[in-house]
Amino acid sequence: MPIITYRDALGAAIREEMQRDDRVFLMGEEVAAYQGAYKVSKGFLQEFGEMRVVDTPITELGFAGVGVGAAMVGLRPVIEFMTWNFALLALDQVVNAAAKMLYMSGGQFKVPIVFRGPNGAALQLSAQHSQAWESWLAHIPGLKVIAPGTPYDAKGLLKAAIRDDNPVCFLEGEMLYNTKGEVPDEEYVIPIGKADLKREGDHCSIITHGKMVLVAMQAADQLAKEGIRIDVVDLRTIRPMDVEAITTSVNKTNRAVVLEEGWEVCGVGAQVVDYIQRECFDNLDAPVVRVHQADTPMPYTKSLEKAAKPDLPKTIAAVRKVMYLD
Amino acid sequence: MATKVFMEALSPTMEEGKLVKWLKNEGDVVKSGEPIGEVETDKAIMELVARGDGVLRKRIINEGDAVPVGTLVGVIAAADENIDALLGGATKAADSPAVAAAPVSTTPAEPTAQAAAPESSTAPSGPTRSSPLARRLASEKGLDIGPLQGSGPNGRIIKRDVEGAATGGGAPSSKDAQQPSGPSSAASAQRAASGLSADFTDVPLTQIRKIIAKRLGESIGPIPTFYLTVELDLTRVMEMRAAMADMGAEYKVSVNDVLLKAIAVALSQHPEVNAHWNGDHIRYFNRVHLGMAVATDDGLIVPVIWDADKKRMSEISKEARELAKRARERKLKPEEFTGSTFSVSNLGMFGIDQFTAIINPPEAAIIAIGTGEEKLVVVNGAPVVRQRVRLTMSCDHRIIDGAVGAKFLQTLRRLVENPLMLAY
User: Fold this and answer.
1) How many other C-beta atoms are found inside a 10 Å radius of the C-beta of residue A103?
2) B87 and B128 in one domain?
3) Using one digit for the tens of pLDDT, what is the confidence trace for B25-38?
4) Which residues contact B381 (CB under 8 A, 6 or more apart)?
5) What CATH number did the domain enclosing A245 receive?
6) Which of A128, A228, A278, A282 is most buried, judging by how many CB atoms fall within 10 Å of its CB?
7) What is the pTM of this model?
8) Which of the residues A29, A47, A80, A129 is marked catalytic?
């Protein structure tokens, strides 16, 4: 099976969907002439022309709104935010227009739109450009929120997002774009709302999503050397969340660590823990432990940034804590 | 929509209930409010009623099983409804993998030991800590989690501790029982299994026996008790009874009825004795609800005569008789054996001269009535035979001082020795 980058998997997904359906178009800052800020849309302008690959001014609220209007009248826009940090400016369109239009129009207007771009911290981009937004977005009824951690999941889920008739927020990762993985040539679509058991084990569950899937897999590898077998549940979709996958895993292992890139308070992990306490109470042998970013704006200083981010040592420590090994 | 059937708290002090009898079979249609089973509580046999309409699809526990309040004991659902999910936790546990504890033993012993040492030294002496999973496994295996040693943080009992107890010296697993063994152990096992033993008989604790032990243990331990004994002359009581009986059989009252009435009236005049110890305060009652200890085949129970001071002797007599009868039949309702402000115990019918009764907490005192009998006493310097009875009052010194109790008994003596005062 071909091994490609996460970046190329995203490009392939959009290209295939644009070839398949001429209502699909890409719009955002630097997506056309510059070939994409992160080169996801490399070659798109040449292949599809400027009607379907549209460069915009630096106006997130404006082009997000154009996208919502286009979706309401039958097109299927893919809106690229250079980063979700910039998408803060567009949240009125995402939250108040896209997410609520179907409901407030009494079902008259579907909004089949994808908002996508890198989410979370890269390296030393400091406090304003290192934020993970999935808990904000997943809070909103009317939005679907996807955060794939591998090239295979990125492609299959982005295709599903473009085909979905509802607004979908698609959270990628700058640090993920160069990661590689197997992606088949033949077409496939991954259903939204289905988690993936990335690794099977019966001692402790790690429930995670997005970039942290890679950390969880490394932790599982390392703990396996000590004889500790980890079940790694990759949520892939944050909303709607695959509760059954979570409970199946925790009912098997009786112990869980919930790992995410964002902050602790009201984070995605808080919701996961709530499902666990509700559905798995009588199967828990230890309190669930969460791993997340420190409760502070992301520091610029390298050493402090490292201290603030969730990482491999913190994840392993959390598993050992849940296993009562420390 | 399925309705779970739980063991309900059918009396104020009930913590566990024994399902005596299912009144419905699996597959029977039941209506909300309809009795589906009989439950032996700590005091009585009560009905367990359906809380929803449908078909009793599953009876999870068997007749004779005792389970804690809140335990799922059955499921009511539509005839074709899938109830597997509701039953999943209850029935699947046996095949849950027993491997989660494995890595602990495969890793070096050092970190585990490190974990245990500081934790146990700081472990508080509070309630037993245990994980939900450990509690569920223990209850499924029929193990008491209390005596287990917890290996988790703060001494928390976790899955591996329960499994260790189950496979170790605790309850024998069915696997062990099936394994062939030497003739002597096989014989002893057989003897134990069949319950045959010349030297003793093992009888499991009934709910009522458990509650008696708990309640009276609470009493003799923390309550500083002292005892006051009086011997009362019953001459006039006997004369009064005889006079009343002469009026007709329906006017007969017992000595006990007269004493109950006299005690109730004395209490109404001495609220300082008609009181409860409530930990941070003493509650003095304006009404007199007299508890009367009744021996039943299963043990002691204390039905209550409400507002006994305001009732006529005939009412007290009738009520005491009925309550005692229904107590022996175990037909008392919870409100009939709760709420007493003061209690009385009488062992006179067994020929006991005098005795000390244990206070029924949180009450301030209890009066123990001995047997009424003829005695040679000295009256005005001459020996005469008189009908006498001995009463001993056990007093909680936290509420009642010696003189307070003595004054109450003075009043009681005046009433009993001059029973016409009861009509005053």
Assistant:
1) 11
2) no
3) 999 999 888 899 99
4) none
5) 3.40.50.920
6) A228
7) 0.53
8) A129
Structural tokens at position A37: 């800020």
Is A220 near chain B, with CB under 8 Å?
no
* Residue position matching structure tokens 């400016």: A89
What is the full DSSP assignment across B113-161? Answer: HHHHHHHHHH--SSSPPB-HHHHHHHHHHT--STTPPP-SGGG-B-HHH
Of B103, B133, B153, the CB nearest to A282: B133
What's the confidence (pLDDT) of residue B168? 60
Q: How many separate domains does chain A show?
A: 2
Q: Bridge-partner residues for A172, per DSSP? A: A118
Q: Is residue A7 part of a domain?
A: yes
- Phi–psi pair at A67, nearest 5 degrees: -60, -45
Beta strands A76-80; A53-55: pairing state:
unpaired
What pLDDT is stored for residue B189 in this prediction? 41
**Tens digits of residue pLDDT in B205-235:** 667 767 776 776 676 667 888 999 999 999 9
Q: In the predicted model, is pLDDT for residue A273 greater than 90?
A: yes
In chain B, the number of structural domains is 3
What domain range includes position A277?
196-322
**Degrees (nearest 5) of the Cα angle B373, B378, B383?**
85
Of A218, A273, A286, A221, whose CA–CA distance to A247 is shortest?
A273
ipTM: 0.73
Cβ–Cβ gap A203/B103 under 8 Å: yes
Does any CB of chain A come closer than 8 Å to the CB of residue B282? no
Catalytic position from the list A17, A29, A60, A80:
A60
Decide if B113 touches A, using CB distance below 8 A: no
DSSP state of B14: -
Checking DSSP bridges between strand B304-305 and strand B290-292, what pairing results, if any? antiparallel
Q: B293 with B386, same domain?
A: yes
- Structural domain including B67 reads 3-91
Q: Name every chain B residue with its beta carbon within 8 A of the beta carbon of A325.
A: 103-104, 107, 111-112, 115
Compare CB distances from B132 to A203, A252, A284 and report the shortest one's residue. A284
